[in-house]
Amino acid sequence: MTAETSQTLDRGLRVLKLLADTDHGLTVTELSNRLGVNRTVVYRLLATLEQHALVRRDLGGRARVGLGVLRLGRQVHPLVREAALPALRSLAEDIGATAHLTLVDGAEALAVAVVEPTWTDYHVAYRAGFRHPLDRGAAGRAILAARQGGLTEPGYTLTHGELEAGASGAAAPLVGVTGVEGSVGVVMLADAVPERVGPRVVDAAREVADALR
Questions:
Q1: 88 with 99: CB under 8 angstroms?
Q2: Which is deepest, 55, 152, 161, 176, by most CB within 10 Å?
């Protein structure tokens, strides 16, 4: 801590981070031990966070992240989109296919940024805001593979006809970006994805991840 920082705010943010890292919640005692502060301080922190819906406590007294973080999370999309656009533009122009950044939104994959190539005669129309199940399409499958530890070399996922008849996709997950689960990919009208596309998508995903760190 320095003279310019707030100890109370720092502790509150640490509470949120601790709760975000657990699926079953934490008790006041557990939080007290992890923060190294007494239970009274933890009670006050939780009460304040509850007022803003950032924390909720279940009937057993365990604290969990509250729904209020979703409202904050929605504002992250524009920032992520802005950071990803340069890499997506380069990818779309290089491959001649529609490039996209897809993030996890609940049980679905949500396209938050889309760039279409400028020089092609035709390409797949793909709009920001498009949703699809995580287990369909290259974008969602790449995310699931990374989540389950099943993504091995060459580091990308290929699909054909899962979201749109006649369209093929390639996607690679974002790796090493804290708090962001997503993928970068392309979709094209082709029976198969050309060999060079997969590695190029992996490079683009790495560029986006670097921009978000």
A1: yes
A2: 55
pLDDT of residue 106: 79
Question: Do 145 and 92 reside in the same domain of the chain?
Answer: yes
Ranges assigned E (strand) in 17-165: 55-57, 63-65, 98-105, 108-115, 131-133, 157-160
- Rounded to the nearest 10°, the torsion over CA 32, 36, 39, 44 is -90
Q: Average pLDDT, stretch 182-190? A: 96
pLDDT band at 32 (very low <50, low <70, confident <90, very high): very high
> What is the DSSP code string of 13-48?
HHHHHHHHT-SS-B-HHHHHHHHTS-HHHHHHHHHH
Q: What is the mean pLDDT of the chain?
A: 91
**Position 32, amino acid:** S
Burial 183-198 (b: 16+ CB within 10 A, else e): bbbbbbeeeebeeebb
Last residue of a domain, one of 18, 45, 64: 64
Per-residue pLDDT tens for 125-137? 888 999 999 999 9
The boundaries of the domain holding residue 94 are 72-210
- For 177, residues 6+ apart whose C-beta sits below 8 A from its C-beta are 209, 212, 213
Give Cα separations from 100 to 73, 113, 136 (angstroms): 19, 6, 15
**Co-location of 90 and 195 in the same domain:** yes
How far is CA 190 from its chain centroid?
Answer: 28
Residue 22 has which token pair? 């657990």
* Amino acid in the structure at residue 111: A
The tokens describing 12, both together, are 């509150």
